[in-house]
Amino acid sequence: MPRPNTLARSCTLLLFSLGLAAAGLAQDTIPTPTRGPLHRDLYWLSVGLGVGSEDFAGHAALFYQHRANLFALRASATAGLFDDGIQDVALLYGRAYGPRNRWRLGLATGLALVDGCIEPGEGSLFGDCKARPTVVGVPVDAQVVWLPSEYVGLGLHGFADFNSLLSFAGVTLSLQLGRVR
User: Fold this and answer.
1) Closest by alpha carbon to 130, among 143, 121, 138, 139?
2) Distance of CA 155 to CAs 5, 37, 70, 104, 120, Å?
3) Options 3.40.430.10, 3.40.50.300, 2.40.160.20, 3.40.50.2000; CATH of 42-179
4) Would strands 130-131 and 103-118 be described as parallel, antiparallel, or unpaired?
5) pTM above 0.85?
6) Tens-of-pLDDT digits for all 181 residues of the chain?
7) Which of 53, 145, 68 lies closest to 108 in space, CA to CA?
8) CA 59 → CA 30, 76, 156, 180, distances in Å?
9) Which region holds residue 121: left if phi is over 0, alpha if psi is between -120 and 50, else beta?
10) Contact 49, 129 (CB under 8 A)
11) Which of the residues 12, 59, 139, 181 has the least number of beta carbons within 10 Å of its own beta carbon?
12) CB distance 35 to 100 below 8 Å
């Protein structure tokens, strides 16, 4: 009667193996969250005030993000109480990382129209300001933003513009409103 005992062992071993295989397949079919590419288009308004190369700085921008592509229309300015004031309007393209883990990093560049009022000499609040002609500049825009909700972001926004009139830069504390993540 060794044969039925061997058959019982073989059947037990076969059932045990099938049970392990079924458990392994069941674990593979459970969906797990992945960090694939961003599939949702985002858009927001960003405004900020801070410090700049001419004392004070400010910016206002409209951003659109499609996956990692970042597009923007930005106006930025720096001015001092007793110094020159210069501003630009820029069309930008760049790349963004995020929003993942409630953070976004972005870097963009493009073309800008730059103009300003530059005082000869030291400049003064009450002096004669000499308006300068509009020139083309190369803007750079960088941002690090914390996204506490789907519609609000807070961050640091840096900008610079390199041009023949007067290159300038600034860093602002920015508020972003819109579909930010």
Assistant:
1) 121
2) 73, 23, 16, 9, 36
3) 2.40.160.20
4) antiparallel
5) no
6) 455 555 555 545 544 554 544 444 444 444 444 444 456 899 999 999 999 998 899 999 999 999 999 999 999 999 887 667 899 999 999 999 988 789 999 999 999 999 988 765 544 455 566 778 899 999 999 999 999 999 999 999 999 999 998 899 999 999 999 999 8
7) 68
8) 47, 4, 11, 18
9) left
10) no
11) 12
12) yes
Structure-block tokens of residue 123: 């400049």
Tokens of 144: 């690090």
One-letter identity of residue 36:
G
